[in-house]
Amino acid sequence: MSTLVAISITTAILSGVWGWVAVSFGLLAWAGFLGCTSFFAAPQEGVKGLLISLITNLTGVFWAMVIIAGSQYVSLEIAGYMLTGLITLFMCLQAKQSWLAYIPGTFIGSCTTFAANGDWQLVIPSLLLGGLFGYTMKWSGMWLQAKSQPGKANATLTSRAN
């Protein structure tokens, strides 16, 4: 079985599980899928990729809340747009730090927060659990693929998960 087919199977199964978990715990299913997507698109593999995607998602939530809070204190609409531009500058400049260099992850966290009307208390656990589900989808898919090829099972799985 190819890696793509194996990851597709486990992603399909765990997507259904995520939907149930999100509804059961009152989380945003779509936000969790964004956290999952953020992990899958991260520039690093394994746990490091998961941590980078989660950290940048959380900084995006922070920056969105700065924009939301700051916009409440300006009376001119144009000033709110200028604040958004300024904060966007900082969102990009933070990428000078290696753990914050995944700019799309930052924008995923920010956009998720805006889409949820600033409800960061709901966005954060949804993004975090979604990222963990993404990691689990990929890890379990690699496990399934390795099990389908008995000669390489343990060495392949261990090297890819880290």
Automatic annotation (TrEMBL):
Species this chain originates from: Vibrio scophthalmi
Matching Pfam families: DUF1097
InterPro entries per the UniProt record, alphabetical: DUF1097
Superkingdom, taxonomy of origin: Bacteria
Positions of transmembrane segments: 20-42, 49-68, 74-92, 122-144
Keyword Nucleotide-binding on entry: no
The protein's name in its UniProt record: Inner membrane protein YcdZ
Keyword line: Membrane, Transmembrane, Transmembrane helix
